[in-house]
Design brief:
InterPro entries: Haem_peroxidase, Haem_peroxidase_sf, Peroxidase_pln, Peroxidases_heam-ligand_BS, Secretory_peroxidase
Strand content: under 5%
Strand order of the largest sheet: 1-2
Structural class: mainly alpha
Binding site for heme b: 125
CATH class of the domain at 116-228: Mainly Alpha
Distance between the termini: 20 Å
Disulfide bonds: 53-248, 132-157
Helix content: 40-55%
CATH topology of the domain at 116-228: Peroxidase, domain 2
Radius of gyration: 19 Å
Cofactor: heme b; Ca(2+)
Order of helices and strands: HHHHHEHHEHHHH
Shape: globular
CATH architecture of the domain at 116-228: Orthogonal Bundle
EC number: 1.11.1.7
């Protein structure tokens, strides 16, 4: 949360509490082993640790979009890795699944993103999944949801919290869950967004942006790419700042 510095890759230590266990991230962020594998292969090819984990993470995010059918975009490189992470920052600054539009706009604005960029980045929820613990309240207590859609999720996510079911997953985009496209926005319009924080993008100040992206996937793809590049340039460490980690999970 300090910037695009690979801080989220650090695991907990007594000296450095990691961001992976922040409430918005816990049980949600996955695939760290993929970054570790890429890091090993890149270091082997380069003869040592010359490419930062922060750069690898940014490039892997872009390549994941492309692999799922999305548009490619150029990524500036040269970031270095942080020696710290910010658990408190992650808990305070990351969006939560039950937050209203004004809170979301405020969180993104404090990082320098305007409403259009926020909606574009929210479109990343065209892929991925969420835990029952996170979406339970929406499918039982939110009136702004398609009733048939809510009912279809309730067997996998009972109303009563339980360790046996809290981790049950559902796709953020039930139409094309394994493809990077603009169907997420169709889901928001149809009231079948899995998270309340996605559904609140409609019927408010961002309504027109949601509808524009649902009608024009090309515009969405372009805006998403630009917003991702901007996010990747948030407070990067360069020059002699930070380090190039040998192991993405730990500081050198």
């Amino acid at each position: 949360m300090q910037g695009c510095d690979g801080g989220v890759l650090l695991v907990d230590t007594p000296a450095v509490p990691g961001e992976q266990n922040a409430f918005p991230n816990a049980g949600s962020l996955r695939g760290f082993e993929v970054i570790d594998t890429i890091k090993t292969q890149v270091d082997r090819a380069c003869g040592g640790p010359v490419v930062s984990c922060a750069d690898i993470l940014a490039i892997a995010a872009r390549d994941s979009v492309v692999a799922l059918g999305g548009r490619s975009y150029s990524i500036p490189v040269g970031r270095r890795d942080a020696r710290t992470s910010s658990l408190a920052g992650a808990n305070n600054d990351l969006p939560l699944a039950n937050e209203n539009l004004n809170v979301l706009l405020g969180k993104f604005s404090r990082k320098g993103f305007n409403p259009r960029e926020m909606v574009a980045l929210s479109g990343a929820h065209t892929v991925g999944k969420a835990r029952c613990l996170v979406y339970r309240d929406r499918i039982y207590n939110d009136a702004n949801i398609d009733p048939a859609y809510a009912a279809s999720l309730q067997a996998n996510c009972p109303n009563t919290s339980s360790p046996a079911t809290d981790g049950n997953l559902a796709p953020l985009d039930h139409r094309t869950p394994n493809r990077f496209d603009n169907n997420y926005f169709h889901g928001v319009i149809d009231r079948t967004a899995l998270l309340s924080s996605d559904q609140v993008l409609l019927n408010g100040s961002t309504d027109a942006i949601v509808r524009a992206y649902s009608n024009n996937p090309t515009i969405f793809s372009a805006d998403f790419a630009n917003a991702m590049v901007k996010m990747g340039n948030l407070s990067p460490l360069t020059g002699t700042q930070g380090e190039i980690r040998r192991d993405c999970k730990r500081i050198n």
